[in-house]
Amino acid sequence: MTATALATTPDPGQPPRQRSVRGRPRCDKSRQAILSSAYDLLVQAGLAGFTIEAVAARSGCAKTTIYRWWPTKGALAVASLLEMVEVAAPIRATGSARRDLESLLEVMAGTMAGPMGRVIASIIVEGQSNPEVLETYCTQVLQPRRERIREIVRTGMRSGELPTDLDEAVVVELLYNTLYSRLLIRHQPLDEPGWTQRLVGAVLGPANAAAQSVTKPLRIHSDALYPA
């Protein structure tokens, strides 16, 4: 047997050697650096002043690396936003559909009142002339959270906590559209104390309405949302 064979033949008395996995920690670190840098630039300049070149310079990663993971600046912008949304506005279950909706809307409103709101607004504005950006935002950020509200409403209807005649699609539209109206038009502050609770109450009705057997139409009174 040759010396080479002796060197490469495994010892049957020893456990097999594990192959080291290389590259993944560095890839993860680069990815986080890119997403963090991208979000910081979005906060500073919005999507209109956002470029892959600037992200590459800030993160220290090559443009080819960025383009390999995100083919367009819109895709990178939405990815960086989604990364921050999962941290800043997590979805938590409280065991009550009404409290879940109040908590979710309160967290989202508070988050949108800060720098993240400016990022979201810039993406929506850019999306008016760039359908790809808007579609990516809707698919990855907006629709999953709208669906979460639908799930909460359906759960509350099944448990009897919420009226069984609620139109879940209308509930989603009323809650989300009011939130985005404050974000984009700025006619009322997003961080106004208690307004999300009033909104949920106006859409769902009083907390004890679910126990009533009489079906009542859904009516929204502006005074409930915008008191004098």
From TrEMBL:
Alphabetical list of PROSITE patterns matching this protein: HTH_TETR_2
Organism: Nitrospirillum amazonense
Residue ranges: DNA binding: 51-70
Disordered: annotated segments: 1-27
Gene Ontology molecular function: DNA-binding transcription factor activity; transcription cis-regulatory region binding
Domain HTH tetR-type residues, every copy: 28-88
SUPFAM superfamilies: Homeodomain-like, Tetracyclin repressor-like, C-terminal domain
Keywords carried by this UniProt record: DNA-binding, Transcription, Transcription regulation
Protein name, per record: TetR family transcriptional regulator
